[in-house]
Amino acid sequence: MRILLVEDESAIADTVLYALRAEGFEAVHCLTGGEALREAQRTAFDLAVLDIGLPDIGGFALCRELRRGRDLPVIFLTAQNAEADRILGLEIGADDYVTKPFSPRELATRVRVVLRRAGAGSAPAEPEAGFVHDTEGKRIRFRGQALDLTRYEYGLLAALLQRPGAVLSRAQLMDRVWGDALDSGDRTVDTHIKTLRAKLREVAADSDPIRTHRGLGYSLEHD
Ligand code: CA
Question: Helix, strand, coil: what percent of the chain each, to 5?
């Protein structure tokens, strides 16, 4: 599997190349978009890892050029706090993104996942089951899709995920997620559970993995 890495910071590129090669990938590094386009004419790549902030044409424009007339899975490297970049990236069809600073090994893992998914080709892709929790990056994927959660939604889901099937009371959840913020009442948990459920339904309309236990609290049914 041949990976194209376009990143203008050599220090970052070096660690990524190392991690990709350690995973057995063949990796080619370009410093600019122009260089990458020339390289892509010579070589057929299976996946591209693109920095968004490049000195010449920028990651999004580069993505469009590289994909002209062919399918190419793309993972973007985005700057920290660049929420807009992540949203735009997903809108133009990025397969995944990784926020700087990131662990090169995590990136290599995502490369493998995206390639596996792409390799399934037009065959109906096996939906990724249930939840995947990246505790370090504080991100949760549900059925293969990254969830865009608020801090409290994330906290609630993380707490439930930690003990699948167990019923957690509102007080326990308050304690875990809000700590000693005293200004929030019982309804707070319910409100955020409601928005969380709505986001899960956006991913899979048929699913409602959070179960309400009247008078007791909530549990998560892991599928
Ligand atoms: Ca850059």
Answer: 45, 20, 40
pLDDT in tens, 198-216: 999 988 888 889 999 988 8
Query: Given phi > 0 = left and psi -120 to 50 = alpha, else beta, which region is 185?
Result: beta
User: Residue 81's CB: how many other CB atoms inside 10 A?
Assistant: 9
**Cα(78) to centroid of ligand 1, in Å?**
9
Ligand 1 centroid–CA 121 distance in Å is 31
3-state DSSP assignment of residue 89: helix
> CB neighbours (10 Å) of residue 87?
12
CB-CB contact of 75 with 94 (8 Å):
yes
Q: By mean pLDDT, which of 51-60, 75-84, 133-142, 143-152 is the weakest? A: 75-84
Which residues lie at CB < 5 A from ion ligand 1?
A: 8, 51, 53
Please tell me the distance between residue 108's alpha carbon and the centre of ligand 1 in angstroms: 19
Ligand 1 mean position, distance from CA 25 (Å): 23
